[in-house]
Amino acid sequence: MNANEYQQLAARTLIEKPDFEISPEEVMISWMAIGLAGEAGEVADLIKKGIYHQQGIDKDKIKKELGDVLWYLSGLAKQMGFTLEEVMEQNINKLKARFPEGYSAERTTFREGDAE
Ligand SMILES: [Mg+2]
Predict the structure, then answer these.
(1) Distance 69 CA to ligand 1 centre (A)
(2) What are phi and psi of 80, to 5 degrees?
(3) pTM of the model
């Protein structure tokens, strides 16, 4: 298989354009979600370069990128109608339920509903 054959075969499952309208609210939600993923990728790349390229961990750059992650997280939460406080509290409550005695490796096995 060459690249063009792959592209033609892959295109069988590709839509040219959506057959639905996207609301301005959905544009903002997807904008924030894509931005959040992109900024998290920037953090991961800095960690990758720091450890695997042996460039050292640049904590100042990581702090700046974490700020970018936070910006998109805050924006996404706002678009979804959540306060950051609500997100934080729900997360801590989930962690308390999952790890009532604190972290343990045995309790990290995936269970249905964990990703919720
Ligand atoms: Mg950034």
Answers:
(1) 7
(2) -85, -5
(3) 0.83
Q: Which residues of 12-39 are buried (b: 16+ CB within 10 A; e: fewer)?
A: eeeeeeeeeeeeeeeeebeebbebbeeb
Output the CA 52–ligand 1 centroid distance in Å. Answer: 20
Give residue 109's pLDDT.
Answer: 73
CATH number of 21-102: 1.10.287.1080
66 Cα: distance to centroid of ligand 1 (angstroms): 8
**What are the boundaries of each domain within the chain?**
21-102
Residue 111: pLDDT band with limits 50, 70, 90: low
